[in-house]
Amino acid sequence: MYYAIVFLPLLGFLIAGLGGGSIGARACEYITSGFLVIAAVLSWIAFFLVGFSDAEPFTVPVLRFIQSGGLSVDWAFRIDTLTVVMLVVVNTVSSLVHIYSIGYMHHDPDRPRFFAYLSLFTFAMLMLVTADNLVQMFFGWEGVGLASYLLIGFWYKRPSANAAAIKAFVVNRVGDFGFALGIFGVFVLFGSINLSTVFANAQSFIPAEGAAGGEAVLHFLGYALDRQSALTVVCLLLFMGAMGKSAQVPLHTWLPDAMEGPTPVSALIHAATMVTAGVFMVARLSPLFELSHTALTFVTFIGAFTAFFAATVGLVQNDIKRVIAYSTCSQLGYMFVALGVGAYGAAIFHLFTHAFFKALLFLGSGSVIHAVSDEQDMRKMGGLRTYIPKTYWMMVIGTLALTGVGIPATIIGTAGFFSKDAIIEAAFMGENSFAAAAFVLLVIAAAFTSFYSWRLIFMTFHGEPRASHEVMHHVHESPPVMLVPLYILAAGALFAGAIFYGSFIGEGQAEFWRTSLFTLPDNHILAEIHHSPLWVELCPFFAMLIGLAVAWQYYIRRPELPKQAAANHRILYGFLLNKWYFDEIYDFLLVNPAKRLGYFLWKRGDGWLIDGFGPDGVSARVVDVTNRVIKLQTGYLYHYAFAMLIGVAALITWMMLGSSF
Fold it and tell me: Is the pLDDT of residue 520 over 50?
């Protein structure tokens, strides 16, 4: 069963990628989508078999991978609760995206290539989440990076798509460099990159308090590090990879530009696969992170700051997909805060629920874009509620889940209500030095999330139509092949939180997670969040109401207020609209100096120095010599006779002088 779950997407990629021209686009759509549906069904079966039974974690061997000296790497699937949760998330969303794409990409001539890329992306993610060792995880990690580059730049004839794909690829390589160094560090410290071996030795790696253990075990950047410091450095390097893949500040700049790909790509990348890889990796390596208080505090800080930063930027964006993209960035920050305070179950629970409502919002926005002739600017929409009512209600459901609508202290609420509120409560109960500040930032981000989410709904679907008469004349509801995936995701967005709350973070969490998520015996965060003060539980609820009320005031009751606010606060508005000027700062500090250095090395180093004094210089001197030599060949007989006479005279002179000596 597990072989089928992992390798069916790979088989679909090979069939569509190599035989797409022979079997046709329609066959590629059905084959790849059918394989993903089968994989999704099998993933749900595995989820209930592993997560809701007493079965111990086990491995499924595939083949011998690497054997070099002391390094032994076998390709095997690590099957435990965390793995099957990720299998459900990845394959469910991917299968629905495949089906949705049949309608969305109906007129694209390169559909076989598109569906092949989707299946390759899914296979790479499955390799990552089933990894039994860090080398296999890195293999899937880089495979996801490659597939994302191909999908973001799918419309390669658009310069903006190519630029976005390159940007995503380069920024992720920065994070991946740290991830690779972290893997090397794990091997140096533990002598293995096999997860079971590393976890078994992790507890005894840090010496007991008061015991001798100050000897250096790792040298990094000229520093000799003892065991505790070395483990902290390794965890920070591993988290650097997570920052790139999961778009955390300062490696977040690629995420909004990834909107240049087709909308189904946005749903796949932002909802369930690539951006959640970093969250999964930190959760998987929780036995290491739990032993470094400094690393967990840093994770909390980055997550909280990213959640706040992305929420502020989302307030003023006008591209419908970019608003949802910054929402993704913000929600990932929530997940990292949960990881940082040790509430690993809450982080994965939010990852699980977020996949449903964020995929719903992205695919719903694709349905809107499909209806309004590929327009993405919300300022050119409005009044679509009566034209595409099914899409409208699906987007409303996704917004209700994202903003966490529910009744505090009850079991009545959407998926986001259960998972996001649990993270906010975990931040309040957290014990690291940044947990309290993280709680404040997350509550503020919750208010901003509510505002920009309802702003999207009001600008897109309410008010008077702002599109041209021609565009409004062609507005139409999406076909069933696009709407059915929305209905399924809407069900998850509404009910997944209530159904799985008890297992993920409730009374049954210990039996559900067992050993797949590690916490120290004195880490009671998930138990304590059920006893948080009532005012803490009410904070996200009132934040949600405040955001909704302000959005209603600005975009329904008095729609002239946004322009007035922007005019009265030009500096702040420009600051947020330009995304805190991160791109401009990077251009000034990194990109432009690198370009100038490259241009200098190209023109002066390579052109003038190396080529000028090397191949080009030598060839030029040869040409100079030959140009002078060929002047000796004039073609006149008397010139040659004269030269011969001169030569004979010179020879006779030399012989006479030689004999005289």
Answer: no
Return the exposure string of 560-570: e unless at least 16 CB atoms fall within 10 Å of the residue's CB, then b. Answer: eeeeeeeeeee
Phi, psi (deg, nearest 5) at residue 406: 180, 175
Nearest to 43 by CA among 2, 93, 13: 2
State the pairing for strand pair 71-79/218-220: unpaired
Rounded to 10 deg, the angle between the 293-314 and 227-245 helix axes is 20
Question: What does the DSSP 8-state code read for residue 219?
Answer: E
What is the helix, strand, coil percentage profile of the chain, to 5?
Answer: 75, 5, 20
Closest CA to 80 of 131, 17, 152: 131
pLDDT digits 0-9 by tens, 413-457: 899 999 999 999 999 988 888 999 999 999 999 999 999 999 999
Give residue 210's pLDDT band: very low, low, confident or very high (50, 70, 90): very low
Query: Do 494 and 415 touch, CB atoms closer than 8 A?
Result: yes
DSSP states of 325-369 as a string? Answer: HHHHHHHHHHHHHHHHTT-HHHHHHHHHHHHHHHHHHHHHHHHHH
Structure-block tokens of residue 13: 């990629």
Residues 6+ apart with CB under 8 A from 164: 152, 153, 254, 257, 258, 259, 260, 261
How much is the pTM?
0.88
Taking only Cα atoms into account, the Rg of the chain, rounded to an integer number of angstroms, comes to 31
Residues 6 or more apart whose Cβ sits within 8 Å of residue 148: 121, 168, 169, 172, 258, 269, 274
Distances (CA, A) of 103 to 2, 260, 264, 479, 561: 30, 19, 11, 7, 38
Residue 608 has pLDDT above 50, yes or no: yes
Q: Is residue 576 a contact partner of residue 313, using CB atoms and an 8 Å limit?
A: yes
The candidate with the shortest Cα–Cα distance to 12, out of 41, 33, 26, is 33
